[in-house]
Amino acid sequence: MNNSNYGYNNIKDGTFIEALENVKAELQKEGFGILSEIDVKATLKKKLDVDFNNYVILGACNPPNAYKALQSEIEVGLMLPCNVIVYQKSGENIVSVILPTVAMSVIDNEPLKEIASNIESKLKRAIDSI
Predict the structure, then answer these.
(1) What is the pLDDT of residues 21-44, one digit of tens each?
(2) Which of 83, 92, 109, 128 is the most exposed place for a label (fewest CB within 10 A)?
(3) Which residues pair with 55 in a beta bridge?
(4) Mean of pLDDT values over 77-91
(5) Which one, of 21, 22, 121, 9, lies nearest residue 65 by Cα?
(6) Residue 4 has what pLDDT?
């Protein structure tokens, strides 16, 4: 799977729903909760009456690290939570996560860089486990 310079992804066999539920379970094992879930396909159908592939955006949060990040940089909330996407393309279920080290690189704060690196390791482990 090709990873972008700002995201990390993996392919999950099975149905789209299985992929979605599996990534949620793996994120939970790494200490993440899901704060938001946006069904892009349903939203685009409702708002624009267009058809789109299965595509869900999850807002994942690791509370202890989010707290540390907020203590280190109060405006970091602009970058939270970590987005995780699950979508279908060419019949494959793709799960992709934002790379916090890239997202946080715009903020000049050394302690925040360490927190981002820790979160990124947890997100990658979750994605690798699906």
Answers:
(1) 999 999 999 999 999 999 999 999
(2) 128
(3) 87
(4) 96
(5) 121
(6) 83
Amino acid at 21: E
CA angle, 81 then 83 then 86, to 5° = 150
Which pTM does this prediction carry? Answer: 0.94
- Phi, psi for 5 (deg, rounded to 5): -75, 0
Give the DSSP H/E element, type plus range, for residue 9: strand 7-12
pLDDT of residue 109: 94
Q: How many domains does the chain have?
A: 1
Q: Which long-range contacts (CB under 8 A, 24 or more apart) does 100-109 make?
A: 102/5, 102/6, 103/6, 103/79, 104/76, 104/79, 107/73, 107/76, 107/79, 109/72, 109/73
Range of the structural domain that residue 125 is part of: 7-129
| Dihedral sign of CA atoms 67, 76, 19, 53 in order | positive
| Cβ(14)–Cβ(93) below 8 Å | yes
Report yes or no: 98 and 6 within 8 Å, Cβ to Cβ: yes
Quick one: pLDDT band at residue 1, thresholds 50, 70, 90?
A: low
* 2 pLDDT more than 80: no
